[in-house]
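stuck on this fold:
=====
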Amino acid sequence: MTQTVFIDGAVGTTGLEIAERLSGRSEFSLVQLPEEQRKDVDARREAINDSDFVILCLPDEAAVEAVSLIENRSTRVIDASTAHRVADGWTYGFAEFRKGQRDAIATARFVSNPGCYPTGFLALVAPLIAGGLLPADWPYVMNAVSGYSGGGKALIERFAAEPDLGFRSYGLTLDHKHMPEMKVHGGLAHDVIFAPSVIRAFRGMLVDVPLHLGAMGPVRAEQLLEALTAYYTDSRIVSVQGRGELSELLISENDAPTDRLELFVCGNAEGYHVRLIARLDNLGKGASGAAVQNLNIMAGLDETAGLRF
């Protein structure tokens, strides 16, 4: 049975990549509005209420407005904005990070797509906290670097207009919009100290959580590696590896799209200093790929269908 999908905000980077992942799939039929009706409230209302699934690729206020246009009890929503990530009545759309989350997504009507940075952080830290290997009341720090496509149209245009711009550090007021979801969904006692930056690469992301295990207790890097490896052993999307022969992690200026999520545990020889690192595509598992994965789960399909590996 073909199910209808309306992407509200389909001309943005995230919306376009979702449509690409859905193209050619017989399970779904895309509902599309003519260009002149794309911002027409009545046209959007009709499309939203006539669709089985709606994926919101909108700014926060517009996403909230779109939800208010729903006049039935059947349309199911995936919101890729920040608006509903810690909201009551919304299921957090990160199937892997917590036991039972995939089943919760499958039956949910309203699903919030995770942020790209929190995807890396929670994938690394949440299972270790739940397993008792890391404390929930530790003051965690996260350093992260992303491709400039994560900043949307304005930042894409800025990098195009400023060819000498190579690195941009931001969030210097320490109140980034992704912080609430990391604290809430990680079950943390404190906000994460978050240091984000952007580089001259269109896509790609490294999320780095340094830990002084020696100050925490007897747990060492090898135990974290073993725990994460066991936790994600059945995942076709998330992979885990240790330091081994790893000498560097790279983001290239023109990396190909991917929906993979790679996790690394890098410790010193004694194992009491460790860097937990996630590498992902901010437009893949960090946005569009995650939305399609959630759509697959909600529709009762293979969750990796249409994803890029």
